[in-house]
Amino acid sequence: NQDDIDQDSTNENTNSQDNKQHPELEYLASFSFYGKIYGMESVRFRHHDRDSLFICFADAKLSLVEYDIENNSLKTLSLHTFEDDELKDGFSHNFAIPIIRVDPENRCAAMVVSNAHLAILPIRRRGPAEQQIQNDPKDTNSKYPLMSSYVIDARDLGNEKVSRIIDIRFLEGYYEPTILILCEILRTWSGRVAVRQDTCSILAVSLNTNDKVHPIIWSLNNLPFDCLSTLAVPKPIGGVLVFAANSLLHLNQSKPPYAESLNSITDESTTFPMRIQEVILSLDCAHATFINNNQLVVGLKDGDLVVLSLITDAMYNVKSFHFRKAVNSVITSSICTIGSKLIFLGSRLANSLLIKYEKTSEELVETYDDANISPSPDEIQDADEPKSKKLRTDEENEDEELEKLYKAHTSCTAKESYLRSYTFEVCDRILHIGPCASIAIGQLSTEEFAQEDPEVEIVMCSGHDKNGALSVLNKGIKPQVVASYDIPGCVDMWTVKDIRLNDENDGDSSIEDTHKFLIISRDNLTMILRTGQEITEVEQHGFLTQTKTVFAGNLDSGNCIIQVTPYEVILVSKGEQIQQLELGIESPIVACSLQDPYISLLSEGGNIMMLVFELNDNDEKQVKLVDTSSLNHSRVTACCLFRDCSGRMSVSDSTSQPTPSSTNESIELMEDDRKFTIDDDELLYLDIDETNTQSNDVPIASKSYRYNSEQKVSYWLFLCLDNGKLEAHIDQDILIYEAFPSTTCINNTLNLKFRKVPHEIQLTETRTPARGSMGLTTLGSGSLLRYFENVANYSGIFICGTFPHWLLMTTRGELCIHSMAIDGYIKCFAPFNIANCPNGFLYFNNTGDLRICVLDLRFTYDCPWPVHKVPLRNTLHFITHHFITKTYVIVSSTMSVCQKMPHITTEDKEFIPVEKGDRFIHAHVEKFRLQLITSETWEIIPDAEIQMMEWEHVTCLKSVDLKSEETVSGLKEFIAVGTTNVCGEEVACRGRIVLFDVIEVVPEPGKPLTKNKIKTYYDKEQKGPVTAITCVEGFLVTSIGQKIYIWEFRDNKDLIGMAFIDTLIYIHSLVSIRNFILAADVQKSISLFRFQVKYRTLSLVSRDRHHLEIFSTNFYVNQNQLGFVVSDGDQNVSLFHHSALAPESHSGQFLVRRAEIQIGSNAHAFFRTKTKVLNLRQVENKHITWFGTLDGSIGLLLPVDEKEYRRLFSLQAKLSVYLEQNAGLNQKAFRTFRSHQKFLQNPMRNVLDGDLLKRYFHLGFAERRDLAKQIMSTPEQIINDLTKLELSTI
Question: Which of 67, 935, 993, 1106 is deepest in the core (most CB within 10 A)?
Fold first, then answer.
């Protein structure tokens, strides 16, 4: 079955009914670390009810953490570092990737810390009796689950020196922890196999952690040189599987080794005895996990999932491997099983998948006879195993009863061996947009919004091969406007349903969930609008229109409408008024909260009133006042009704029973006087005030109008009091709390805890109000927070105000926050669902315009930025935006099998066919092509592409402005392409320069996308490879070979050389600004050139003296200062300046390094945008330098003023010490510049860590005040600085 299960859905928001029956991933918590994670392993300690986690970081750090259910956080149990110079063998850095493994019986853990060293971490093993005895509080060592760690040198274990440890794995079934080491004795590579092969070995070492004695119990030499990894085989087979690039081996103590050749490459690369496997494949970059005792799922590098079965005999000797290709999935980077039916595929090149597998059939396999399974002496002559060390199962065979049982078991399984077939199905996905190969920015169409600065969209090349895709990202939500109306004077609005009005539509159920009325409240009037095909104003329909409306909503599951005015409550059904209730109060109603069938009202004087919807004695619908005198003992500032369907909001006192109502109706009491306290801590605990706790007879609706009782639905009223109970400072901050179960039970309290959720929502207004913008205090009685349901299948809260935000609760339970600053200040918001606007929303902006909008369903909002992923199913290399036609030009490649090799001749190159047989796996070459894609529908434009020649690679693509007489400005936009012919070392390398334009033509009938075509102006071969391209002052700049050329595109026909200059090794990036050109060399850092048009000269201005492996580069603009941003192979981002007066520049010959920071990922693409204007009277020329990384993350560099920088730098120094870091990592050490070379200069830490500074918002008010006092500042000043920086990037 070769079905492709990796099909990206065109609409990620749609959830079918079938998907609800599958298991899904649920979001629990997320944690960030100041370190790059290289490995994780779970461990279960004795007398612990949850697993702990070993996490290893670069270079050789190890942390032991566990999930703290009490505080819903991560708790660090142990810290270890193995970065001593003695373990580096003379190297300045540890280049070996750390590997962590845990014993299956949780007796110890081991970690590879260098090429030949192992760190052993013994796990404390105590019985229950011993644990009860050790109660000495002074004995702190006995409380930790780990004993003292130590390091062993693998080179001292065997007779031969170990050159490199490839992998380690703990084996099952041994009395003591036994670790198998896959190592390389003598190093070799594929080009040296003819003289040195079979260089790998295995060592099985028994770990005696008490005496620290480590004897070798089993070894085997002369394994294939391309061994990659190992995987322990569970009992009863036991042993280990060794994965090599071209073969697969099973090794076990006291049993003959078994190996199979997977392709014909092993015929000349190894002499290890192997059998021939019928299935031809390669295990390079493969990842595997067992799904039962003898079958495992293997993910190959091309995305195929293969089920591997181990065929054994009666003695569990492996006799053959059976491969069966199951499905085609994503290219896996990790794989693990979850339970007995699920597999998780982690990928860094595509979306990660949760896959469900089910057994479909079993096929009986004939086993081998006993005469054929005895090992021959020739097969085990290389095995080195002492007889004193045996498996624990062999020792237990001395017992007669166990031996009989063992013989009975083997006799019944000797003739039965099954091959099971499985089906695979995707249950859930985790979105991933990496790795970032190239980035382009385009301009969004914002004609409906009066925007001063144009909004941009970010388009990123993501994925690889069949997982290749375009990722379209927006910074915040950009709504699609359906209609807009000018209705001035609006204060608030609501949309309500009236299901009974649907009876007029002959029972059309498709419009039952639509909104029927739009209620708009003004200062002293109310406007009632009837929604449908058109929005029209109606007279009354039972509503009060001569007074303002405080709230409107639905009761009785949408059959009734309630209108709350300052002094009255109106109940409407089927367009007729059925009740008008006088409240009889002195102070007017200013706020209301509704949870069908309850309504809570808050008066201006701070009193609470409660209404309940029910049937009276005549079965007539009505709302009834409930006695709430016990709730008005203190002034209430805010109220909210909550309906709990999960059953988590339960009272720990099991003896408390609902108090019956004073009436004779069959009514239950579901009200408790619970109080909370919010202080400056992260956790919100229950605070019991015994003086105010009393029983209240508060009736609720009758059972006929309540929700299904089987769901155990309960209703709760949350109050904010002005006496300190649940006191929330919301004048400038939005506080978000999440609830999680509490393990500590206190009588008469809720079994819940609340924890503050960190977020980046800022309500502080730091910029001058533009276009009549109003501050937060002008909202009047309207609420900033607006709850909504089913807006583009999302539910959450919309925050109105100057800086509006969406708080979306995803289906996984994760809270996603998106800004919506495209239309400025938003006064009020309401969901809106009609036939012409399904699952949309309404809002009023400050100019009095009513916007009817919908969300773009192509985007996924379950991530930090809205993302639209466009699958193209090939590798994308470059992308650029054509501004005139609003199209994108992309360069992609597909893999094809190469069965010929270039051969040099006197005249031209020839190709010789490669004949290697049917079992040979041929190399794959890339076939490049250039295509156009439209930004309207994100479809490939047909008949508009350029196919590159065979063996020709596209190395650069850019939109350039060259001199032309066809335009008024004298410049015309062209698309420039540079290529290189890659035919091996013996063939001279050549390249091409292609210049073309995207033109508009009359589209073909029925093909509207064919309105754009490619018109080629220039296409000629060059003398060397074209590696980089850009433009300067209307001239074309190219890097060909080791030279940089300046070309003039004359008469749109030919390129005329203007100037050139010799460079260093290999220029792969060119960027320009005005007449300056910044060139990035692959090894020699960056160089700055200047082109003088008047003299037609290209000269070197300055360069960096150090050696850096440059990934990407761009400019850094801060007012009148120009800097150069560089990302290198060591995952650093550095900032250079040209300063001729600096002593270290040697009169301007060398660039001066001004700032540097470690970002933990390789930044592969840069682009710049202007900062948002915060003050119209102070227009600043500052640019944001954005970067995309190979891990799929996006970061930015933002210029900061000197005063703000010094203040925030002092705060950063305090926060790095004050805050507790996850896994005990050091923020300052992580952000320090790293390099594999020694630089004779101190690190330049002149870059602020924005991720760390944002955590200042997450602190309590007392903590903010204390930290601000330590740096001689105020919390208001710090918040103003941070908010200014945050709003500059919206």
Answer: 993
